[in-house]
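Hi R.,

As promised, here are both runs. First protein below:
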Amino acid sequence: MYFVWSGICFIGYTIRTAFNVLAYKKHPWAENKKIMTLVLIVMGILWFSWFSMCFKDPIRMNIPVWIRYLGLIFFLIGFFLFVLSHQKMRGFEGKSRLVTSGIYSKIRNPMYLGFIIWIVGFPVFTRSFITLASSPVWIAFIFFWKVLEEKDLEKKFREYKEYKKKTWF
């Protein structure tokens, strides 16, 4: 069952990446509300499948309890970054304004950073060896999303290059 979940996860990441490419190329589909809703559903399925991978991983790591809890702390930090960044973005959807306050005053992409941290932390907590070993694949997708988004923001906002110099990630 693990490999079914990992296949679903990979398909979800691929669909999300295709959507990012369409958005970067300003394709009309990227502005279509039905397609955007579908992508949100795909993201939900993606994350459900990823968590299922952690719980169904056939190879469990033999690691000390303190390292497992360190993984849980990483996961919680990643989740906190995701929630905090999502909250800060509320009300800015569809507006042509660069968000540079709050968490965004220190980290350009706290949501993506949160994903990366939890992609490493949770498999450590659940002792999921194959899922942890697959982390570079998922992280590579996220880095690609980040690169496309930052290229788009550089075109959209003159001040973005200066903002990049003052922030991390």
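And here is the second one, sequence first, then its structure tokens:
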Amino acid sequence: MSLLTPDAGLLFWMLLSFGAVFFLLAKYGFPVIVKMVEERRAYIQQSLDAAKAANDKIEELKRESDAIIASARAEQTKILHEAHTFRDSIINSAKEEAGKLTSKLIDDAKKEIEQEREKSMKMIRNQVAELSVNIAGKVIRKELEGNDAHMDLIEKYIKETTSIKS
């Protein structure tokens, strides 16, 4: 018996035991192994599909969030523009109101100044008239003191005045 050439009996028993083991494995072992491999492949495929779906969902959410952000920015720009417009209108309205108020105050001040001027002019006229009457009275008294002709004229005027009143 040599090591390189097996004996026919040994070869027969080896083939018989290999066949039995192969038959048992083919009948009971390989289906379980194949089933487990298939389940593992299905689980991995399901995980890959779920990951792809999650990535698609994330992309969709990212697009939606970008759209929402763009919309919010547009709304922000619109609101800011409206606020600036409103602010400008309020400022212009306040300027107009201040201009009207200033004009009214200036007109009132001019009227008051004119009234004060009229009042002062009246007072000055009254004082000038009073002074003129006082001066005229003094001048006339002085002229009439020594002159009898003037006294006669005064008496004549007094008589005319009293006769007109009666």
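A quick note on the second one: The radius of gyration is 65 Å. Let me know what you think.

Best,
J.
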